[in-house]
Amino acid sequence: MYYRQHPPIEPSLLTELTQKQQEFSKKVIMQKPDFDLKIIAGCDSSFIGENILSVFVLLSFPDLKELEIQYHYAPVTMPYVPGFLSFREAPNLLLTYEKLQIKPDLIMVDGHGISHPRRLGIASHLGIHLNIPTMGLAKEVLAGKFTMPDTTKGSVTPVIHRNEHIANAIRTKDNVKPVFASPGHLMDLETATEIAFSTTLKHKLPEPTRLADHYSKTLKKEFT
């Protein structure tokens, strides 16, 4: 059960989740994606008490026109465990994905891909389950260190963790905080970074995650 003030974590649950994360991370494939990118999805989740609301937004590429929006609202099935948030979000995101009438060529997740202490953020988690290319686009660093990129749009610096280049800090607009692009599954860092830039319009966030975040907040009002 989910609690607003989280209870102590059962050691057996922590062990189980760690083993699953290690198993899943071994299945992650880093490669230049083999696709003709025409439809890109953005997804995001928000928590409302003991429930979770997940949203998918589909956009055409490269013109970024909205094609479809789906959401799923349901009880949370797992307690909050720091570092294992993907196990809490993924089940409802997968149920939302099943509702899509159109299937995307790529999913851009509001979160992390391999830029995670055990290389399994929510983008990698979803990619493994769905077996399609995924990438993470996050607002904060979860693992690793980086040098702040120059303040001009297009500046990029690497995020390094345990001597691995796991993400890029990218400046999508002049004089705004950077965002962090990482490959999830069936994706490479270079392509993830290029797509993040090519899907950014007048806002800081690329359109897929910006719109997913927007609709998540808008729909959340219906359940509160």
Overview of the molecule:
By secondary structure, the protein is an alpha+beta fold. It has a single domain, classed as archaeoglobus fulgidus dsm 4304 superfamily (archaeoglobus fulgidus dsm 4304 fold), CATH 3.30.2170.10. It has helices at 11-25, 85-99, 122-130, 189-198, 207-220; strands at 39-48, 51-60, 66-75, 106-110, 134-138, 145-146, 156-161, 164-170, 179-185. The two termini are 20 Å apart. The model is unreliable at 1-5 (pLDDT under 50).
In short:
The protein is of the alpha+beta class.
Could you name the key traits of this structure?
single chain, 224 residues, archaeoglobus fulgidus dsm 4304 fold, 9-stranded mixed beta sheet, 5 helices, disordered N terminus
Return the CATH class. Answer: Alpha Beta
Mean pLDDT: 94
What would you call the structural class?
alpha+beta
Order of helices and strands: HEEEHEHEEEEEHH
Please estimate the helix content. 25-40%
Q: At CATH's second level, what is the architecture?
A: 2-Layer Sandwich
Domain tally: 1
Task: Give the CATH topology.
Answer: archaeoglobus fulgidus dsm 4304 fold
The low-confidence parts are: 1-5
Shape: globular
Strand content: 25-35%
Number of DSSP E strands: 9
Distinct helical segment count = 5
- Mind telling me the CATH superfamily name? archaeoglobus fulgidus dsm 4304 superfamily
Largest sheet: 9 strands, mixed
